[in-house]
């Protein structure tokens, strides 16, 4: 369904076809894995469609209601959880991580802020050659931290921005220690339930997830089921599942200060500086860039069998989300281009 964001019915139909063709250039096989896409303006859905199959073996057609793994978009939820705990007076983003993990090497030089902004310098566990030895093991958060904490740092904290999954695993561990809840329970009770996100989950391959989209890789001979990993490994850096509708609820909850007060919200969406004074384009859990000159907040995700991308343009209250159930199809540029079309239409 495509509602009247645009000037006329004719223009609306034209824009719908334009967006359809934009998506089907990449998601061009109706019998292969697909995706779900949404555009919302001022909280109202104006484009919501699905393409391809949610399950190849059972020949199940994708719908916009399907549940996807969202990979690193999880980092938004982790950062907001940290800010919620700061709001409650249980931690401070300027705290050293040695306050929480006594034996962490360089823990007296790395702050929670460094972890949130990917400026800590600690080794990214996804780049370690030994990752395959734990990929399918059940890892407690402490075990995950122990896996990478003794690796040499890549640079001194605050010296540079370098995207880092390990930092967000450490944040998940701190969330558990400070809150007394598992990360999964904290996110469920304090974010999913408060925002009304009834189709969002901590990922699992064991539980039955209604309307789950299955993940795929593409090989030379065709599609194969995704590689199995234990979700305790990506943990708070990439283990959540959601839908396009629930992610819109997430964006609304942020806009309406349902989860955070305005002061804490501002911390998530401001640019910070390195030790040198150079500004970089990442807040807490979001890249801070622009679409055609309009500032935006965006983040993607990639995990075995899935890719995701979300773009929010605060100046026009436009939210665009793209979710894919094959890591062979990236929704990143499609989602950004959808945002450009919506932005042009709103500004007409």
TrEMBL record:
Source species, domain of life: Bacteria
Beta-lactamase-related domain location: 29-328
A Pfam family this chain is assigned to: Beta-lactamase
Gene3D superfamilies membership: DD-peptidase/beta-lactamase superfamily
InterPro entries (alphabetical): AmpC-like, Beta-lactam-related, Beta-lactam/transpept-like
Protein name as catalogued: CubicO group peptidase, beta-lactamase class C family
């Amino acid at each position: 369904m495509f509602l009247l964001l645009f000037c006329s019915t004719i223009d609306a139909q034209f824009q719908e076809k334009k967006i359809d063709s934009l998506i089907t250039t990449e998601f061009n096989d109706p019998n292969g894995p697909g995706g779900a896409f949404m555009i919302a303006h001022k909280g109202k859905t104006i484009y919501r469609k699905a393409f391809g199959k949610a399950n190849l073996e059972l020949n199940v057609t994708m719908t916009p209601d399907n549940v996807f793994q969202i990979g690193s978009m999880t980092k938004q939820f982790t950062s907001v959880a940290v800010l919620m705990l700061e709001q409650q007076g249980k931690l401070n983003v300027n705290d050293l991580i040695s306050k929480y993990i006594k034996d962490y090497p360089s823990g007296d030089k790395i702050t929670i802020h460094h972890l949130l902004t990917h400026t800590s310098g600690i080794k990214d566990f996804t780049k370690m050659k030994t990752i395959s030895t734990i990929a399918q093991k059940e890892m407690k958060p402490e075990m995950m931290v122990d896996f990478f904490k003794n690796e040499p740092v890549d640079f001194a904290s605050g010296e540079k921005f370098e995207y880092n999954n390990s930092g967000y695993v450490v944040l998940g561990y701190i969330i558990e220690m400070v809150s007394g809840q598992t990360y999964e329970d904290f996110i469920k009770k304090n974010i999913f339930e408060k925002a009304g996100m009834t189709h969002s989950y901590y990922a699992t391959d064991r539980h039955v997830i209604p309307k789950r989209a299955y993940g795929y890789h593409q090989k030379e001979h065709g599609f194969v089921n995704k590689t199995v990993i234990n979700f305790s490994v990506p943990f708070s850096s990439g283990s959540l599942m959601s839908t396009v509708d629930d992610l819109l609820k997430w964006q609304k909850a942020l806009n309406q200060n349902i989860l955070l007060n305005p002061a804490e919200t501002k911390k998530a969406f401001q640019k910070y500086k390195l030790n040198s004074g150079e500004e970089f384009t990442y807040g807490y859990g979001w890249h801070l860039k622009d679409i055609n000159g309009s500032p935006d907040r965006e983040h993607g995700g990639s995990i075995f069998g899935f890719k995701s991308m979300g773009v929010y343009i605060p100046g026009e209250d436009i939210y665009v989300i793209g979710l894919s159930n094959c890591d062979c199809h990236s929704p990143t540029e499609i989602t950004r281009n959808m945002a450009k079309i919506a932005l042009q239409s709103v500004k007409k």
